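Follow-up to my earlier ticket, as requested here are the two runs.
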Amino acid sequence: MATKDNQILPSKEQGLFRQVVKYYETKQYKKALKAADLVLRKFPDHGETLSMKGLIISSQDTSRKEEAYDLARKGIKNNLKSHVTWHVFGLIYRAYLNYDEAVKCYKNALRIDKENYQILRDLSHLQVQVRDIAGFVDTRATILQLKPGTKSHWISFAIAHHLNGSYDIAAEALKKYEGLQEEVTPNEAYEHSEMLLYRAMVLDEGSQHNEALIHLDLCQEKIKDKLGLLELRAGLLLKIPGRAGNAEANFRKLLMLNPNNYKYHDGLREALQLQPDAQGRWTDQQRWLLTVLYKELAEQHPSSSAIRRIPLDFKEGEDFEAAADRYLRHFLCRGIPSLFSDLKGFYSNAQKRETIGSLMRQYLKALEDTGAFPQLPDEAGSPEPQPQAKEWVLFYLAQHHDKLGETGEALRLLEQCRELAPTLPELYTVQSRILKHAGDPQGAAEAACKAESMDLADRYLNSVAAKALFRAGRIEEAEAMAAKFTKHGEQVNSLTEMQAMWYEIECGHAHLRQRAYGKALKILLATVGHFNDFMEDQFDFHAYCVRKMTLRAYVQMLRMEDTIHKNIFYSKAAWAAIQVYLELHQKPAAVNSADDDLANSGLSAEELKKLKLKRKKEQQKAKKEEAAREKEAEAAALAEREAAKQAAKDKGAAPKKQAPAKDKEKDPDPHGEQLARTEDPLGEAAKLVQRLREHSGDRLKTHELAFEVYMRRKRWVLALEAVKRAAGIGGPGSPEAHCMVLRFCHAAQSEQGLKEVQPVVAEVVTEELAGLLGSKTTAQYNEAFLEEYGTQSLRHRAAAARMMVLLDPEAKAAAAKMLVKRGGLLGGGVAAEAITHSDAQEVHQLLANELREAQAAADFKAKCQQVFRWSSYFDGPDRISFEAEEPQSEHTQQNGTHEKDSAKMNGVAKAVEELAIA
């Protein structure tokens, strides 16, 4: 830290000020603060000391933010022409993550002292942090001119031009620095090797593939990362015309090192021009060549699972059946539970799906009859008995039938598997998944908890159980389950500190379903905050990676950080948080108090009383738990101190005086009540929407929520953009996009629609309406959608019904009739396999809550009871009951009466057929 100041201090105080800087740089904040106070005692208006005191306070205690800012502002006011005061103000802004203001302060400091290396270095780190690449290039060029003999400055200059797309300059800078090096010592050999590989990477990205290959050939003796060298060479050879043969040889060498690396297989197939077309299809000639290739590779690497698995992608018909036969036998004999997860991608192909199912049924019959798999065509002698494989065949078939929506058959097979292997936890995780798909979240939670109880040391089973409990609405049990793997006493807070985002998202959704908006926001915004932490964490690597010469990894990290908000965990958390804000905007009174929340919930008086009592008990329990945790922590700290004293006494030495442990700062809003009381919920939602539009614009849900926010904020142009983007992503048959188009057009054409907007906005929106609807009216547009797409799923029909009522509020009866009666407006039925539990639940809620057609809702529910027999929502006759006083047998309680399954499935098939008819 430079100390030049226009306010000249006496020599004694100058020495004290230098001590302030020294103590600060060595993180001795108490001594630095004491020295600063000594200076200010005699010179209370000394600008640089005031600024330094603010910087020390911000480093010592982040909660004293305003005090640090006030001191820094006072320091600048007292000495506006000191680069130190501006530099320190920038450091304080940086400490509080206000990077834009910090950059401004650094630039003001440089106007006063243009060649200050420390300020230039700090400015360059901030510029790359905020991706001001043009400014980063200029700053690194200035630093290189000031100190051309330092290695890190040449490397940073090259990185700046690489990020800026100036590949020639970056490569030339690296080459020039290499020429300036007189000798590479053994200690620097690896760093030098990384620089050489980085230069090849720069040349490659600059489309100078030949130059990069020549560079690698010249430097291969100096490169220590031989695997990285081989991978880079293989990739370069693929891009150079006429060098495919050399690329093939390199990829074959790589496969000798790791035959299970799918990237190497992709490269080899590309070198041999055996890649599929844009639709993922191969020609017959390609399939034959691929078959020969993988037969050869299988002989070279008989233990490679990738070489067994990849041929299933390109083979068809009898060839696929033969390859799948061998593949399935191999894993079934070894009892691999993840076999179905490996193969479920083929279930979108009806032929391959049926082939796999047929093979499994053949295995089951042969194992029941002989205890061995069926004879292979090229096998000699009797097949080897594999009686233990039967349980894994049943295990797979249960998942197979669940994927096909055949819940009864899936549970029956799972029960048979349980009789053979009653202690296998995976049986209960699969049962949990089956019951979840069947619409029984409580049964799914019970099965997952059973699996967890069979192996208490398995964190995966614990996580599955916690997730199932959240989805069943049993939040307290879920938190207790998840807390088993956290630090003692920390409970669920540790999961947030560990950034367990799956937990936070499930917990947030559970609170959202229970309308506990404050708690939902608290946990969901914590997930959003993790991504801000990820962005902040990269700051320390800007200098570290250059110093350690991990240049390729550093550039990859920067590119990853640029797209980190595209991560699905961020999208899920942000989507749910936006939904919370939308509900808060719709019912702002719900956040004023818990009683208001209940009053607006639409529950009966008796249900309200029960829910209020439940909330009161939860609050009392939470207070008791918090008090118990504090007491336990105090007892643990006391026991630790006593143990330290006793240990010191045993050694005959006086115990060291330990500093009292700093109490963890209490959360001022543990339940998110202040978050839920936000005055502008739509404004908060719009911030999340903006980030999602930038990074998750290829996801339909983003534009659905953007449309909801912008329509409520009367931002017509942005809402129009959301409609068009959603229509482009979802296609003309998307129910979500259809609803958005009609809602937008109906709102724009209404009496109050465009009256309050600017004329230019009204003109743009009016012109776009014709493009959205074509030559149709809104009613004709909805009828055309119903006629063309209404047979695809219940969700499509539900969308058409909603729009019927939107366009004509008197059409509720007609919309209900269209949804549940034979014939109706559709003139056709939804295919049986297109009926899902979630779609049926949506239709029932539409009938009961929005259309308020009680009789139609009751009739629809009666039909669904026979289709979704395990559904708790539809009160299915085979659902698992957890309230019975007499405990049922495990066979009956968890799977229903399976001896009548065949009769039930016939009834289900008939009910599905009836439900499918429009």
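Run two:
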Amino acid sequence: MKLVIFDGNSILYRAFFALPELTTSNNIPTNAIYGFLNVLLKYLDSEKPDYVAVAFDKKGRAARKSEYEEYKANRKPMPDSLQIQIPYVREIISALNIPVLEYEGYEADDVIGTLVNRLKDQNLDIVIITGDRDTLQLLDKNVIVKIVTTRFDKTTEDLYTVENVKEKYGVFAHQVVDYKALVGDASDNIPGVKGIGDKTAIKLLEEYQTLENIYQNLKNIKDSLREKLEAGKDMAFLSKRLATIICDLPIEVTLEELKTREWDKKKLYQILLQLEFKSFIKRLGFSEEIEEIKQAVQLPKFNMKKLCDISEIKGKEIYLLYSGDEGLFYIYDQLSSAVFTTADKGIVEKLLKDQGIQKVVYDLKNILHKVDFDDACQLKNCNDVMLASYVLDSTRSSYDLETLFISYLNTDIAIIKENRWAGATILLRNLWDELSKLIDLNSCQYVYENIEIPLVPILYEMEKIGFKVDKNTLQEYTKEIESKLLKLETQIYQIAGEWFNINSPKQLSYVLFEKLKLPVVKKTKTGYSTDAEVLEELYDKHEIIPLILDYRMYTKILTTYCQGLMQSINPATGRVHSNFIQTGTATGRLASAEPNLQNIPVKYDEGRLIRKAFVPEEGYVLIDADYSQIELRILAHISEDERLINAFKNNLDIHSQTAAEIFGVDVSQVTPTMRSQAKAVNFGIIYGISDYGLSRDIKISRKEAAEFINRYFEKYPKVKEYLDNVVKFARENGFVLTLFNRKRYIKDIKSTNKNLRSYAERIAMNSPIQGSAADIMKIAMIRVYRRLKENNLKSRIILQVHDELLIESPYEEKEIVKEVVKTEMENAVSLKVPLVVEVKEGSNWYETK
């Protein structure tokens, strides 16, 4: 017979600090729960105990505190994000029908010790699962301790028995408390004897066995050590009492009460759904559970009908899903209690255009593509649960429908075995009800209703139209890049004195650091690093480095842009049709994929030249409208810094102005170098740049960089005030807001890990600015699109990249379009400083920049 006892607090604490921050879509922290459950399930499975218990500390005036006020005084209070997780852990333990044992004022170790002491003579094997070594003193012939370390992918253990503890720990089990009495325990603030370390303590216990014997034989111990022991005698015996596990608590529990019992699977399933632990749900096989669990999804009775005409739909609100695997549309009409199916795109298009019917869908843009919607302006009264969930939390890792059902309805549609898509369409109503309430509660209506939803038809048309690519230009440029790469390879091999794979970090590392003896900048687990940061630092150390950097640049241009774009050209249209993703960034910016047109190089001319291949249709011209320094203008508006505001109001060169301020010179005396450095400070401030980051970016010392930043804040004090306040707001609320109330949750803002916390603070500083810029650009796109349609112009928006909007315009419309674009973009929002838009035209994308 076997009893397994879990040290609850120890496992929880270690899981919390070992695993990265995890949260549900509703921002419930879950890393400690995840780690704890991983350990629990692993040992329930591997040990297959007959009896089981989880022991916890219980608050109250701790017995040890009464004796020694400094006991555990160095411990910080339990982090809020761990405290929040404990009730969920207890719910899981309850669902597993495992008894929780605790006793007021005492620690889990004391509960475990009491249980072991009471049951160790009952012909029972006892296994203690813990995260620390305090319970090693409980080892006995039938008691073992497993010290566990939890990670995402695995849980490792260190097994201690009464036979191996001396070999592994240095002392026997019965000497563990004597050992701690001598060396102390920093984690519990047990003092021990000052000046005595591990080796001395082990040697003393090998010779004298116990603490009492050591003090009875002080006369036999050499002078210097004896003096330490004499001086620390009171602390030694106090430390022994503090370290000794109490084994006689009056806990009323019988062995029968600890018997392993059947789990409450329905309850456990619901908790795991709430916590979005899909991997555990799959691991435990809940998708194949019995009828009781299937009832977790309650569906009304409904008829399945084939939709032949929208006149058959009775309701004024319907719910629509597209099943990609079936090629069918599912439409739930709650008034007639019917789920209609249709493969007829024309019927669905009519439905989407019907002004009198409110529609709720998942992924509206995809549905428009599936029906090949002919005029996006005619789209009427559609809500999208995917975009609603994105507006509520832009930091989610997934917006797939199944995850949304789990997150907001605590419902897993995977367990619907029959008519799964019909069931999901019915549940779409419940999901929308929940999301719409949360949007109101979080004051996100404007972002959802006036920015994200109106943007859908625009993006749909942009994707459908695409961007023309001149194959001949692209092929010529490809040959040019291939020729440059061949020349670079030859030069690199000549300098290296041998052929090697330049793209292999291992081979490159050998050439640079072993053969050419260049100074090592950074090591990795596999050897010397050759990443971009390392090569930049070595730039002027050897002639081979600039060649390797050029080689990498041209290789990326060739593979990612030249070859990648060539494969993306639609043979029927001669254009690339990118996918513009609304839910792809935490800031609210659009993302682009297949191909990604937003990462076409712009910083260096060799990469920018590829833009020559992007051309308009014959008889058309490309018009490019670009916001000038929009993020700095938003910073001026949000911070209300008078110097910044005045600079923009007076149309001054903001970088020269900043240079004059921080260098203490007149604007006329600002050199190009000074302006360049000031520009790095201006943009760096937005991103919460550190002195280290700035020093690296503009190649100055950290001391100089710190002085630059300090001088900037002296001249623009309200900027510093804003940045401090926004970090404070994020720490208090867990999120930040844009000018339009777009919310971004800031994970790790309270992290005990300094690097994670600093990164979170930088995100908090930047997100309101970058997010507001994204919102303004989206509003501008909507305004420009509507003006083009209102004026019956043939011009069309074909691309949006960060602060830039690109329009393909018939030559005869270009002057009208320039005026429309500039007016609508500059008036998209009213700030304390003017928005300025630069408009250019060209016969290819390169010419417009």
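The only thing I checked on run two: The chain has a mean pLDDT of 87. Let me know what else you need.
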